[in-house]
Specification:
Elements: H1 2-20, E1 25-27, H2 30-34, E2 41-43, E3 46-48, E4 54-56, E5 62-64, E6 67-70, E7 77-79, E8 85-95, E9 100-102, E10 108-117, E11 131-140, E12 152-159, E13 166-168, E14 173-180, E15 186-189, E16 195-202, E17 204-208, E18 214-215, E19 219-222, E20 228-230, E21 236-237, E22 241-244, E23 251-253, E24 259-260, E25 264-267, E26 283-284, E27 288-292, E28 304-305, E29 309-313, H3 321-328, E30 336-340, E31 345-349, H4 353-358, H5 361-373, H6 378-392, E32 397-399
Parallel strand pairs: 1-3, 2-5, 3-6, 4-7, 5-8, 6-8, 7-9, 8-10, 10-11, 11-12, 12-14, 13-15, 14-16, 15-17, 16-18, 16-19, 19-22, 20-23, 21-24, 22-25, 24-26, 25-27, 26-28, 27-29, 29-30
Antiparallel strand pairs: 30-31, 31-32
Helix pairs in contact: 5-6
The structure holds 2-acetamido-2-deoxy-beta-D-glucopyranose (10 copies).
């Protein structure tokens, strides 16, 4: 008797709880959220909508699904005190009134999107969100990413956060990293980062990736304020290297770099006097484009360049003799070679493919246009350089 009267209510509440805890919920009021407060594990998505203004997700410890808080104009605060993990996405997007967000137990989430938040400066992630694959922080007023502590990421995309002045992550590996700031105000420090696939730094104030050893695809620095790029542990770059328009850059050094799978573009770094930071580089899979006012740009171990070469310096101290030598030694396998110094210029169409380009001026013009249209996006332009050089190869010039 006793047993039966105890079991029945338990059974009923289990069935009831199971139902409400296993289907997605759109909550527009606190009472909607209170209806799931007994669900320690919630299976499904929780979606907040107007006119909720202060939301508390009490009781829920784990969401097997997503928590989506998008364009809820009325929402000023959100708290999920017990929530420890979210199997899919936590998104806080377009929240014009949100000034307080608290996820003090959260440690694990697959995707974290913090996008277009213009009233909040900090989010409470007291437990430390460490298990995370994708992190996007875009167009926010956040002043700090404290509490986001990833060690490995698939995607890291941070852009347009006016008040964010530094990011320091103990990140060890990342696939795609794309970071830009406004007004060159962001100090970036990833001192433990050893492996990355594709990295783009735009408009950063400083970048510490000193421990990087493996770059499987592209690395680019565009329009940053960094003063030096010294990567002492990188032996190979799988894709392209682009260093474009970094006005404070004075020193580049890649002392053990032997091969670059894609192209190399080093252009418009107005204070970079020497491109002699590649003492052992022997193989370049794409094109080489060096443009600036450098005094020297000698690659003493260069053995193969599969694309074309375009070297152009406005410095009085620069001359083309080393590059002309490389061209004569058939190191340059692409369809064109051009070297311009202040006093002399050499431009050579190398293979028969140049005739194909050269027979059609319209074709040449469009290749040039393509390259220029890409020039705001340094990483991409490297891939285009080959066709630009092909187009230039229409002319076989030699002036002194
Ligand atoms: C998610 O949180 C719940 C409750 O704290 C825990 O039992 C579970 O192990 C966690 N799962 C993951 C993948 O972290
Ligand atoms: C946000 O919601 C408002 C209505 O509340 C709607 O007019 C607007 O188009 C939505 N914006 C986006 C980007 O979804
Ligand atoms: C480069 O950075 C400066 C800030 O130092 C900014 O004003 C300018 O718009 C940026 N240029 C490009 C092409 O992004
Ligand atoms: C750099 O990476 C190595 C592993 O490659 C690691 O042992 C070392 O602690 C790292 N150094 C720093 C400063 O993080
Ligand atoms: C880079 O490539 C190596 C070898 O192909 C692979 O083991 C590693 O996982 C890759 N790293 C990244 C971050 O993709
Ligand atoms: C590298 O990242 C940039 C910017 O995120 C992107 O445009 C480009 O397609 C990526 N390249 C590769 C090879 O993944
Ligand atoms: C560039 O940095 C390297 C490595 O720190 C150093 O050996 C070299 O002297 C520096 N060159 C200049 C011109 O500062
Ligand atoms: C370098 O600067 C010149 C002049 O400002 C510009 O025309 C050219 O497109 C720039 N090149 C790159 C690769 O940004
Ligand atoms: C390259 O040029 C820089 C700046 O003028 C100079 O300090 C350096 O000694 C030169 N290096 C070589 C190898 O000629
Ligand atoms: C070209 O510059 C190198 C140093 O980079 C120098 O040794 C050589 O004499 C120069 N050649 C001419 C013709 O000026």
């Amino acid at each position: 008797m006793l047993l039966k009267s105890c079991l029945l209510p338990l059974l009923v509440s289990a069935v009831y709880a199971d139902d409400i805890c296993s289907k997605s919920l759109t909550a527009s009021s606190q009472s909607d959220l209170d209806s799931i407060s007994k669900c320690s594990t919630f299976k499904g998505d929780i979606i907040l909508s107007n006119p909720i203004d202060s939301a508390a997700i009490n009781g829920v410890q784990s969401i097997q699904g997503s928590l989506k808080i998008n364009n809820v104009t009325t929402l000023s605060s959100i708290a999920a005190p017990k929530l420890a993990n979210i199997s899919d996405t936590l998104s806080l997007e377009i929240l014009q009134s949100l000034s307080s967000a608290s996820f003090p137990s959260l440690t694990s989430v697959s995707t974290l999107n913090l996008i277009t938040l213009n009233k909040i400066d900090k989010i409470n992630f007291a437990a430390g969100v460490s298990d995370i694959d994708t992190l996007i922080v875009s167009d926010t007023t956040l002043t700090s990413l404290a509490g986001i502590v990833p060690t490995s990421l698939d995607l890291l995309n941070i852009n347009n956060n006016r008040y964010l002045s530094s990011i320091e992550f103990a990140l060890k590996s990342v696939n795609d990293l794309d970071i830009s700031s406004t007004a060159n105000s962001l100090d970036l420090s990833f001192p433990y980062l050893t492996a990355a696939k594709n990295m783009t730094f735009r408009d950063a104030k400083s970048v510490n990736i000193n421990n990087i050893t493996s770059i499987n695809s592209t690395i680019s620095f565009v329009n940053t304020s960094v003063t030096s790029i010294i990567l002492t542990k990188v032996k190979e770059i799988g894709g392209s290297l682009a260093l474009v328009s970094n006005p404070k850059l004075t020193n580049i050094s890649f002392p053990i770099l032997e091969s670059i799978g894609g192209g190399v573009q080093i252009a418009n770094n107005s204070n970079l006097d020497s491109l002699s930071g590649f003492p052992v580089l022997s193989s370049v899979g794409g094109a080489i484009q060096f443009v600036g006012n450098f005094d020297n740009a000698t690659l003493p171990k260069l053995d193969t360049v599969r694309g074309g070469v375009n070297v152009n310096s406005g410095s009085d101290h620069f001359n083309c003799s080393d590059w002309n030598q490389l061209q004569q030694n058939n190191v340059i396998r692409g369809d064109s070679y051009q070297c311009k110094a202040k006093s002399s210029s050499t431009s050579v169409a190398i293979t028969t493919t140049a005739t194909a380009h050269g027979s059609n001026t319209a074709n040449a013009a469009s290749a040039t246009a393509t390259s220029e249209s890409k020039s705001k996006n340094g990483a991409v332009q490297v891939a285009q350089s080959g066709s630009l050089l092909g187009a230039l190869a229409v002319f076989v010039l030699q002036f002194v």
